[in-house]
Design brief:
There is one protein chain. Helix 6 crosses helix 10. The chain folds into 3 domains: 2-44 and 535-723, no CATH class; 47-181, abc type-2 transporter like fold (3-Layer(aba) Sandwich), CATH 3.40.1710; 182-501, no CATH class. By secondary structure, it is mainly α. The model has no long low-confidence stretch (mean pLDDT 74). Helices cover 77% and strands 4% of the residues. The protein has 19 helices and 6 strands.
Length: 735
């Protein structure tokens, strides 16, 4: 109980008189005043930022944006939006003004910061949508001569504004981008339908060109048969010309003979036998000529139907092929583009026309040229053949008449000998018939060259027709092959468009809006705090409470003696003397932390998570700090008192009370683990904010260890000081 009596004795000594009691009261309240004033001043500085003057300058001229899907134009003024956001709730007390006033105000200290929104701010923000990207910028004017933290806070506020604008612009850009995907998906779906229809048309075109190819080959075969017939006719006409020449010669001889016979009737009986022989020869020749004439007439008659058939076949083939192909192409173009939206009609027709123009042009050119050649050749040849047939038929009839007449002449000549009285009349008739025969054979001879020339031209024309028909057949074959390739290409186009359609996202409006919002703000920071200080002042409380406790312990030894001189002189034990010297300031320290804890909790409204634990921990911290300062004073005297102040300054920067201790320079970082205030700050953080009690247990263990070590050192010093020396009786330095 010696230590308790020593403590009570020291308290009586300190409380003897009014001024000592006031001094004790002042020392008890110093930690409360220190910690209370600091925490009160820094309780919630961010909540009063609206009292900090700041200027905002809006120079933005705005811009016009165009909706890529609808083409609608919208006037945008992002600078005005930023200014309105700051003026409404921008942290500082923002005032809108001019740039000159803002710069002058920041320079003079009237404004702590100024934000300038340039003329092209909106245009730069919207430039990415026009594929001419320009980074928009804000100009922040600060002056550290006014307040360094004000500039730092301004950076944070402007950064938040920038992030908000970036999120808004990014969300709008992403929404526009996704809307474009939706438009592409719709248009591509229409393109897939159009490709399917185009494939159907290409299939029908392929089938139609296959039919046209068959018709062209049939036309070529018919034209070749007509050419062969015309060549055969040409060969037979050559024989007819020789026969007609012989007939003409015979008719001339007959006419001459009958004329001479008529003039020489008197010699008729003597020449009757000769006349009969000649008439028989003439009859045979006339019969042969008549036969040749019939053959020529029959051949010519066969040519005309062949030509007419060839012309009809050619015309039907040309007309059918051309009409069918044109109709199929026109129907296909109309079918392909009929279902396409009105705003894409021209594009569809251009695409379809581009695909079929080459095929249609080739078909029209070849069919038109071939039909003109065939028609021209057939028209010319038929006219010539018709004229020749008419002449051959007339000549054939005359040849029949001539044959009949020559036969009559032969019969008359045979009976002439027995019918001399009737000879004169018969000779006259024969002379007349011979004249007519001569006229007919002359006409026949005159017509035969024309017939021969016409048949030659017919043979040449039908040959040309056959060649053109063969070219037409080859051309339609190429067209049919091209139509097959068109069909295959259209099928690949349809499959490719369908595959591309499956790769383009098609989302509803809600999903698009959610996706755009996520793209504009891809990262959300969720504040999941394991423990919270609540306010800025609450965050600083562990540091200021620890520091105030050290200051409270420090000032106690300005009044309280670290060891009782009477106890030392009386030879008391070192432990009892040390505890007696520690107990008095420790008891006052309990009053100090009690007052400080009450003000912190009830006046400043900083509510500890563990109230009783915090109070008891503060008592331990105060007792530990008292023991450390007592040991310094006992061992070093006035130098120890000064060293206590130095130690406070070192702990001030090494305890990690404001910034994390890892940020301090390396020489100071090495002392962090050895300073008792480090564990005081750490323990108070866990108790005030509801942290890890295991950490508190470690801190308590360390502080108790420091307390024991300090008391042990004081005990050791007390034992040594029971022996008085000159230095103790007359110290070199007295405070």
């Amino acid at each position: 109980m010696t230590a308790v009596r020593l403590a009570l004795s020291e308290l009586k000594r300190l409380a003897a008189g009014r001024m000592p009691r006031l001094a004790i009261l002042a020392m008890a309240l110093i930690p409360t005043l220190y910690a209370g004033l600091y925490l009160f001043a820094n309780h919630d500085p961010y909540g009063n930022l609206d009292q900090v003057p700041a200027a905002v300058v809006v120079q933005d001229e705005g811009t016009t944006t165009t909706d890529a899907q609808t083409g609608e134009k919208t006037e945008r003024d992002f600078g005005r939006d930023v200014a309105d956001q700051l003026l409404d709730d921008g942290g500082f007390g923002w005032v809108e003004t001019s740039q000159v006033d803002a710069e002058a105000g920041v320079r003079s200290g009237r404004y702590d910061a100024a934000l300038v929104i340039g003329p092209t701010f909106s245009a730069d923000l919207a430039s990415a949508g026009e594929f001419e990207p320009q980074q928009a910028s804000l100009t922040l004017i600060t002056n550290d001569a006014n307040n360094y933290l004000a500039g730092t806070i301004s950076d944070q506020i402007v950064g938040q504004v920038r992030d908000s604008i970036a999120e808004q612009v990014g969300t709008e850009a992403a929404d526009t981008f996704l809307r474009g995907f939706a438009s592409i998906h719709t248009n591509l779906a229409d393109a897939v339908d159009g490709a399917k229809q185009l494939l159907g048309g290409a299939t029908r075109l392929d089938d139609g060109l296959a039919d046209a190819d068959d018709g062209a080959h049939r036309l070529a075969d018919g034209a070749q048969r007509a050419a062969d017939g015309a060549t055969t006719l040409d060969g037979k006409v050559g024989t007819l010309a020789d026969a007609v020449g012989q007939l003409d010669d015979g008719a001339g001889q007959l006419a001459s003979g009958l004329g001479e016979l008529q003039s020489k009737t008197k010699d008729l009986p003597a020449q009757t036998e000769k006349l009969a022989d000649g008439a028989a020869q003439v009859a045979d020749g006339n019969a042969q000529v008549a036969r040749y004439g019939h053959e020529a007439a029959d051949a010519a008659g066969q040519v005309l139907p062949t030509l007419d058939g060839a012309r009809a076949d050619a015309k039907d083939a040309f007309d059918g092929a051309q009409d069918d192909i044109r109709q199929r192409i026109d129907d296909r173009v109309a079918a392909v583009c009929a279902d396409v939206p009105a705003d894409q009609q021209e594009q569809c027709e251009a695409i379809a026309a581009q695909v079929v123009d080459e095929a249609r042009a080739g078909i029209d050119e070849q069919l038109g040229a071939a039909q003109q050649d065939v028609d021209a050749a057939l028209d010319a040849q038929r006219q010539d053949v018709q004229s020749a047939v008419t002449k051959v038929e007339g000549a054939s009839k005359q040849l029949d008449t001539l044959a009949d007449g020559s036969r009559q002449v032969a019969d008359g000549a045979a009976t002439l000998a027995g019918a001399t009285p009737q000879l004169t009349a018969g000779i006259g008739s024969a002379a007349d018939g011979a004249d007519r025969l001569a006229d007919g054979t002359g006409q026949l001879a005159a017509a035969t060259p024309a017939l021969t020339d016409g048949v030659h031209r017919l043979a040449d024309g039908t040959g040309q027709v056959a060649g053109g028909a063969a070219d037409l057949a080859a051309g339609t074959t190429k067209l049919a092959d091209g139509a097959g390739e068109l069909k295959a290409g259209t099928s690949e186009l349809r499959d490719g468009l369908a595959q591309g359609l499956g790769q383009i996202p098609d989302v509803d409006d809600e999903t698009r809006e959610d996706t755009a919002s996520t793209i504009g703000n891809p990262v959300e920071v969720k504040d999941e705090s394991l423990s919270s200080a609540g306010t800025y002042g609450g965050g600083l409380a562990p540091f200021f409470l620890s520091l105030a406790t050290w200051i409270g312990a420090y000032v106690l030894f300005l009044l309280v003696r670290p060891l009782s001189v009477r106890a030392l002189a009386a030879g008391r034990s070192g432990l009892a003397t040390a505890l007696g010297g520690w107990a008095t300031p420790a008891a006052i320290g309990v009053v100090q932390v009690a007052a400080m804890f009450a003000v912190t909790k009830f006046a400043l409204d900083i509510q500890p998570a563990y109230g009783l634990g915090t109070a008891l921990f503060l008592v331990l911290v105060s007792g530990t700090f008292v023991a450390v300062l007592q040991a310094l004073n006992v061992w070093l005297g006035a130098a120890g008192q000064f060293l206590g102040l130095v130690l406070m300054l070192v702990q001030l920067v090494t305890a990690g009370g404001t910034f994390p201790w890892q940020t301090i320079p390396q020489p100071l970082k090495a002392m962090h683990q050895f300073m008792p205030m480090t564990y005081a700050v750490e323990g108070l953080r866990q108790l005030l904010y509801g942290g890890n009690l295991a950490t508190v247990s470690r801190d308590v263990t360390v502080l108790v260890g420091v307390l024991v070590v300090a008391l042990g050192l004081t005990t050791l010093a007390a034992r040594r000081q029971r022996v008085w020396s000159v230095t103790r009786l007359q110290p070199e330095l007295v405070l």
